[in-house]
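Researcher: We plan to redesign the surface later, but first we want a full-length starting point. Tokens attached.
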């Protein structure tokens, strides 16, 4: 029984230490404090968004397509992955410096 008490005490102390060590993350911003800009998009993904680099799933029916421009800035375009393939009008642009 003494071993259970020491194990419980060690677990409680470890969890308490982890809870105290946590800190709030800063608000999301681009590299070097640059705010993320949103651009309104038409009915197609422009060629000047650069080369396709990744796709990130968002839920069951959406994904974000990531492109890299020549200046290495990133562009995220949200699209519907259902049969309609709807492209979101809001596109995120993250500049790199």
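Model: Full-length starting sequence:
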């Amino acid at each position: 029984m003494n071993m259970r008490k020491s194990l419980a005490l060690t677990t409680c102390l470890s969890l308490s230490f982890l809870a105290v060590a946590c800190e709030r993350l800063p608000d999301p911003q681009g590299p070097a404090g640059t705010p993320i800009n949103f651009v309104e998009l038409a009915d197609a993904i422009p060629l000047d968004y650069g080369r396709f680099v990744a796709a990130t799933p968002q839920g069951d029916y959406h994904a974000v397509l990531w492109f890299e421009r020549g200046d290495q800035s990133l562009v995220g375009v949200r699209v519907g992955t259902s049969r309609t393939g709807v492209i979101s009008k809001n596109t995120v642009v993250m500049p790199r410096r």
